[in-house]
Design brief:
By secondary structure, this protein is mainly alpha-helical. The chain is built from 9 helices and no strands. The longest helix has 14 residues, at about 50-60. Keywords: Repeat.
Amino acid sequence: MIMALAKHRSAAEVVDLFRDMMAAGVTPNEVTLAVVTSSCSRIDIRAAWIAKVVHAAAAKCRLDGLLLVHGYAVCSNYDDVEALFVVMPEKSTGTWNVLMKGYVKAGCIKSARSIFGRIPEKDTVSWGTLIDGYLLAGSLEAA
C-alpha cells in the first residue's frame, strides 16, 4: 500500500500511513523504510523525526546502514547523518556516495567535495555525483 501511495506522489500520505503502521505495532521491512525515507524528501516541511523513526526501525530489524544514511540525507538532517556515519563500522562506496549526494542535493558542494576526498575507492557514481554537484552550483570549470 505504501508503495502505491509513493508511486502516485502522495508523500504526506506515505508518512501518515507509516506513522499508523508504527502505532499499530507493524514491523516495517527494508522496502517500506526505503519508500518512507524517499517520500520524506518530497514533503515541504522536512520530516527529521521520520528519519529518526526509520533509524530506530532499521536498527531493530538490523538493516543496512546505507538506508539510514539515505534517510537522514533526504531529510537534510546532516548533524544526525554525520553522527551516524562516524559510528558505522563499515562504509561501502555506495554509503559514501549516498552521503555525498545528500550534500549535492542540498547545494552544499564544499561538503560534498570534502566527502568525495574521503572516499577510499571512488567509482563512476562518485565521480558523476561530484560533477553533478559542480554543475548544479554553476561551477563549470570545476566540473
